[in-house]
Every structure is written in structure tokens, then in C-alpha cells.
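Q: Convert this sequence to C-alpha cells.
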Amino acid sequence: MTDKVAWGVLSTANIGTSKVIPGMQKGALSRIDAIASRDLARARRVAGELGIAKAYGSYEALLADPDIEAVYIPLPNHLHVPWSVRALEAGKHVLCEKPVALNAEQGRQLVAARERSGKLVAEAFMVRHHPQWQRARELARSGRIGEVRAIQTFFTYFLTDAGNVRNQADIGGGGLMDIGCYAIATARYIFGAEPLRVAGLVERDPTLRIDRLSSALMEFPGNRHLTFICSTQAADYQRVVVVGSKGRIEVLVPFNQPPDRPSQIVVDDGRDLFGGGAVTEEFAPCDQYSRAIRGEAAWEFPIEDAILNMRVIDATFRAAERGTWEKP
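A:
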């Protein structure tokens, strides 16, 4: 039986402690052996709550631990590249929260660091490793809904706390970086292609300065389109609809799949407007990251994929600022 990968976590951020760490602790090939904070007392408290053996009072100390094979980085966006590079240089594999960088140019530093270290580095887009998305892509490519023509994505939540990192413009906060990236990544995943051009609209909070409402239209090869809306100041809502010439696939909770109930997609043959031909499929969550480190799963999304996604985000911001179509 393959040994579990020994993970360390840089930061006691909520996304890690409430979502990712508990999930990885359930993984067949992963275990969390250490956690670090710049506050040792906090690191020890969180380690105790989550059953983690080692707690460190600095990120440097965790990276110096020879028993840690890989690190998960849920730090604020502006720290993703610097600490990912340091972790790679310390001989660790890296799983970094999205978006992996503040822009595509910065993200290219990770390619160089990966080549120097010989270690894996990946962006934590968990959705593409979830069976509901793998099934959605399989159905889209199988012809079940005919020719795939368009994808429409909605992702919103309400957050006005100025102290939250998602609302701090200077460190990479805002809706497009935080959640619009999901719409882009999943469209690229379903279409299996990169967008040719992008149009965008961005409305910013006058006090926080972050983009609180963003919309985009993207043209993909084959005259296929993505439209999406994301907002950090709207009611909680998520939905993705993939529309083809003969039907549709609807991903009901596409991005934050609940851990305590099945995830669902609806496949509708389009026979009427009332879902008369709709069939619901259910899926349980899973984790694949550690299998890639052990060489037991294909590495489908190298860090270059994250940079491609970042290029589209960059183009969307440019399009909104200039009022023009932009090429990623």
C-alpha cells in the first residue's frame, strides 16, 4: 500500500482549517503532519483542534522540517507566488490556493521555480477533480446534449467586511480574482480550449476599491461562448448551465459542494421548457492531489494551466478598463 503524503500547511486561514484540511485528512493518500502560523500560540491551538502533530511559529520553520513532503498554501493572494517559490526551493511539492498569482507574468515565476526544484506545483482548483465536473465534461464531449454552444455561469456571495482579505484591493482582493476565476477555469475545462477574445464590465466598491460586480463575455474557438456574472455583494448563489444544440447540463452547486450531502447535476434533453426530459445524477466529493504526488494519477493541470487562466483574468480587467475586446 502506498504511503500517505506528509503535508504541512502554511497559515491558519479559514479556507484551510474549515474546508481543505478536514478534506485532506479524509484522503486515502494524504495526511496533515504540520501547520504554521506567525503566531505560535494560534498554530498550537489550531493543531490541537484538528489533530495535527506539529505546530510552528513561522512558515520558515515548517519549510525546514525534513519530514514534510508537500505544503498547502492558503495565504492571501499577494503571498502565493513568494511562498510557493520558497517552498519549492525548500524541496517541497506545492498546492497553492487560487488565484495562484496576481497576474500571469508573476505566475511565470512558478514555472522557473518548478524547473529548478524538480517538484510539483499546482493551483487548488478542486472542482476539476470532483466527479460531478468530470461527468459534466464527459457528457458535454459525448454528444449527449448535441453540439455545445454556450456556458452561462453565476457565482455570488455577500461580504462587506473591510478586514477580510477578499475585500483588500492592494493584496489581490475582489470578485474576479476570488470567484470569477472559477467561471473561466470551468469553461476552459468543458470546452477544452482557450478563449480567443474577452469583453468585460467591472463595477467597484467606492470605499473598498475591489471589483464587487463583474461580468464577462468570451468567445471560444468554434463560435462557442461563455457568459458569467460574479459578485461579492449579492445574495449567495451558484449555478453553471452548459447548453448544447440538443439539451443542457446544469451543475446545481458547482463550486462549493457541501461535504454533508450529494452533489447534483441535471441533464435535460430539451424536449420542453419545464424539464420534462431532465435526469438528475448525484456524486460524492473526492480528493486527487496526493495521488499525483505519488505518481498514481495523470497530472492534467500543471502550473502552466493556472497561468493560462490568469491571462484570461488579466484580459478581462483590461477589457473593462478600455471598453474594448481584448485577447488573452
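The chain has nine helices and 14 strands.
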